[in-house]
Amino acid sequence: MNFAAITAVGHFLPEDRLTNAELEQMIDTSDEWIRTRTGIRERRILRDKDKATAYMAARAAENLLKKRGIDASEIDAIIVATVTPDMFFPSTACLVQAEIGATNAWGFDLSAACSGFLFGLSTGAKFIESGRHKKVLVIGADKMSSIIDYTDRTTCVLFGDGAAAVLLEPDSEGYGLIDSIERVDGSNWKMLCMHGGGSLNPPTHETVDQKMHYLRQEGRMVFRYAVEGMADVSAEIMERNGLTGDDIRYLVPHQANLRIIDATARRMGITRDKVMLNIERYGNTTAATIPLCLMDWEKDLRRGDNLILAAFGGGFTWGAAYLKWAYDGKDVAVDTEAEAAASH
Ligand SMILES: CC(C)(COP(=O)(O)OP(=O)(O)OC[C@H]1O[C@@H](n2cnc3c(N)ncnc32)[C@H](O)[C@@H]1OP(=O)(O)O)[C@@H](O)C(=O)NCCC(=O)NCCS
Predict the structure, then answer these.
(1) Best substitution site from 37, 41, 184 to test ligand 1's pocket, by max atoms within 8 Å of Cβ?
(2) Residue 247: C-alpha distances to residues 54, 101, 198, 261, 328 (Å)
(3) Counting C-beta atoms within 10 Å of the first and last residue's C-beta, which end of the chain has fewer, N or C?
(4) pLDDT tens profile 258-310
(5) What 3-state class would DSSP assign to 319?
């Protein structure tokens, strides 16, 4: 049987930073509160009015294709995980397909909030495992600044913009996605959602006046569910694959809150040095957090490393994946110009 292995990663981060010091000028908050309650120091914001999620996703895909040394026409399918598509339709995947010139690809958007990349990964893997496709792009991309109320201190400190992509290809030697768990429970959907803009509350002057086009959450409750959900599936996937903390090279957690990540790592018996953490620099980029971590740690990853990916998000959606890394990151040729353009 073929496994679906990640054979390349790419990313795009907007140039503009929004620091805690700047937020102190905008709302009643403090750098100290944000750092100790969330672990975030700054986030990236895509300020160009004429650019959105598809732009970032396409740049991440181009960054990946260049590193892998393949042409966009070789891509069979594009899955874009996002809750901030450029528009309801066409899908972001269509816009990315056209922008990068993936002339032989089909694709679609996947809506699973902060678990979007994880769900996209297991969905994309099915096309590879079945033998149907040879190259599937899975992209996590969100322009969270487009749905955040920058007068609401309980949400605006948490989120940032960004995109990252992985390429899935068949592997017959046992490397790639070994196992995954996906869960949804819609019964608490109101705890983290955007009420307006959809078919239930189409945009009107009233929905805008009521700020229904912004993300809303009950932070404390989401926190409780996230700690439990992420730790549960992470422990479960380790147990059913006979893994202990010692077997894991890295935990790759969704970056929502440092305290949620620490609780998950504790439950897995994993120390901080084995946890990929970049929340400090990017905040919560929703579907992009996990692939952005893989990107930041790529140089450090070796063929055969055991990774546990874990996420929790709106819906609620949550899950975990056990991945046996397929290549030596140190061997990836770095195009410094392309890297500088992607990461600023
Ligand atoms: C949002 C979150 C950081 C708040 O942290 P918390 O420790 O739960 O804080 P609480 O919500 O209990 O609020 C504590 C106090 O801080 C205040 N506060 C909230 N945001 C603040 C901010 N940015 N600056 C200063 N004070 C703030 C609250 O108003 C509250 O004040 P009160 O006690 O006078 O009412 C935390 O709940 C969280 O991360 N939740 C998960 C959110 C998430 O990850 N969502 C994305 C999907 S995974």
Answers:
(1) 37
(2) 37, 41, 44, 19, 18
(3) N
(4) 999 999 999 888 999 999 999 999 999 999 999 999 999 999 999 999 999 99
(5) strand
